[in-house]
């Protein structure tokens, strides 16, 4: 038996022992993640019903859920969630594609990094609200301006994540690829892409989160439907239950899209033997 076979056999034995040592805990189930918000809602409900906290400006969860149910029963919930989800999806697609392309190019080429990165970093410092009047002048108050604002919000975290991931690839790994005379395409496919993929997924998640934040500012620009419209309508009509219901729906739908992104990316990250996969 060769030394390689002995090493592999020892590694498999240690992995099996570690698996046996690990005890199955009830806290391993994903549903544990909802325990904290449920406890928070229960405490909130108790405080309001006991009169410790006023329920006029901070309605209890039961009132908020009844508002959500009323929106769902009337069909307005589907309309508003669908409009917001459509805008975020289109803006995320455009922003992530542009951020990925420019991040990869500037990370791979020192010349492009010197030319483009300073300008992009300066644009990244511009507040999101500052783009609103410009986009209204360019695109009007219709869908194009809203999607453009969301795309801007998604672009910068994706660009920064991809740029940092590409420039952070270990030089020695690239040198190994060149020793094996890999072509440029093979070097990207076999070495650079697997190296940057975990950071790329993280950048997409950050971009998606900012997309959900930017959609609120986008829907303040004269929208007649969407969750942002529900927020404005609730503020103008003095309905705190509607405002909190919209915030709750934002949280649920945003978390759902983040989970879908994680599920979609999981098959591409199975090769990793990370610390998180062992706990």
Automatic annotation (TrEMBL):
<feature type="transmembrane region" description="Helical">
    <location>
        <begin position="121"/>
        <end position="141"/>
    </location>
</feature>
<dbReference type="InterPro" id="IPR000515">
    <property type="entry name" value="MetI-like"/>
</dbReference>
<feature type="transmembrane region" description="Helical">
    <location>
        <begin position="147"/>
        <end position="166"/>
    </location>
</feature>
<feature type="transmembrane region" description="Helical">
    <location>
        <begin position="210"/>
        <end position="232"/>
    </location>
</feature>
<keyword id="KW-0813">Transport</keyword>
<comment type="function">
    <text>Probably part of an ABC transporter complex. Probably responsible for the translocation of the substrate across the membrane.</text>
</comment>
<keyword id="KW-1003">Cell membrane</keyword>
<dbReference type="Pfam" id="PF00528">
    <property type="entry name" value="BPD_transp_1"/>
</dbReference>
<feature type="transmembrane region" description="Helical">
    <location>
        <begin position="89"/>
        <end position="109"/>
    </location>
</feature>
<keyword id="KW-0472">Membrane</keyword>
<dbReference type="GO" id="GO:0010438">
    <property type="term" value="P:cellular response to sulfur starvation"/>
</dbReference>
<dbReference type="InterPro" id="IPR035906">
    <property type="entry name" value="MetI-like_sf"/>
</dbReference>
<feature type="transmembrane region" description="Helical">
    <location>
        <begin position="31"/>
        <end position="52"/>
    </location>
</feature>
<protein>
    <submittedName>
        <fullName>ABC transporter permease</fullName>
    </submittedName>
</protein>
<comment type="similarity">
    <text>Belongs to the binding-protein-dependent transport system permease family.</text>
</comment>
<feature type="transmembrane region" description="Helical">
    <location>
        <begin position="244"/>
        <end position="269"/>
    </location>
</feature>
<keyword id="KW-1133">Transmembrane helix</keyword>
<keyword id="KW-0812">Transmembrane</keyword>
<dbReference type="GO" id="GO:0042918">
    <property type="term" value="P:alkanesulfonate transmembrane transport"/>
</dbReference>
<feature type="transmembrane region" description="Helical">
    <location>
        <begin position="187"/>
        <end position="204"/>
    </location>
</feature>
<feature type="domain" description="ABC transmembrane type-1">
    <location>
        <begin position="81"/>
        <end position="261"/>
    </location>
</feature>
<dbReference type="GO" id="GO:0005886">
    <property type="term" value="C:plasma membrane"/>
</dbReference>
């Amino acid at each position: 038996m060769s030394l390689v076979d002995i090493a592999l056999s020892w590694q498999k034995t240690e992995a099996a022992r570690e698996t046996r040592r690990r005890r199955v805990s009830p806290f391993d189930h994903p549903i544990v993640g909802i325990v904290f918000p449920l406890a928070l809602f229960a405490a909130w409900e108790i405080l309001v019903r006991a009169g410790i906290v006023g329920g006029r400006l901070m309605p209890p969860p039961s009132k908020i859920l009844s508002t959500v149910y009323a929106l769902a029963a009337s069909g307005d919930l589907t309309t508003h969630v669908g409009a917001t989800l459509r805008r975020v999806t289109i803006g995320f697609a455009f922003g992530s594609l542009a951020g990925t392309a420019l991040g990869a190019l500037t990370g791979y080429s020192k010349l492009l990094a010197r030319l483009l990165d300073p300008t992009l970093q300066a644009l990244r410092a511009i507040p999101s609200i500052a783009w609103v009047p410009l986009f209204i002048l360019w695109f009007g108050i219709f869908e194009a301006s809203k999607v453009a604002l969301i795309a801007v919000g998604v672009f910068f975290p994706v660009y920064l994540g991809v740029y940092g991931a590409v420039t952070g690839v270990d030089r020695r790994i690239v040198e190994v690829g060149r020793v094996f005379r890999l072509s440029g395409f093979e070097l990207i496919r076999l070495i650079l892409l697997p190296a940057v993929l975990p950071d790329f997924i993280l950048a997409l998640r950050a971009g998606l989160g900012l997309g959900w934040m930017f959609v609120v500012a986008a829907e303040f620009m004269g929208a007649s439907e969407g969750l942002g419209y529900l927020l404005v309508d609730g503020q103008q009509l003095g309905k705190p239950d509607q405002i909190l219901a919209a915030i709750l729906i934002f949280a649920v739908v945003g978390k759902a899209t983040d989970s879908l992104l994680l599920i979609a990316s999981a098959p591409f990250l199975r090769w990793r033997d990370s610390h998180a996969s062992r706990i």
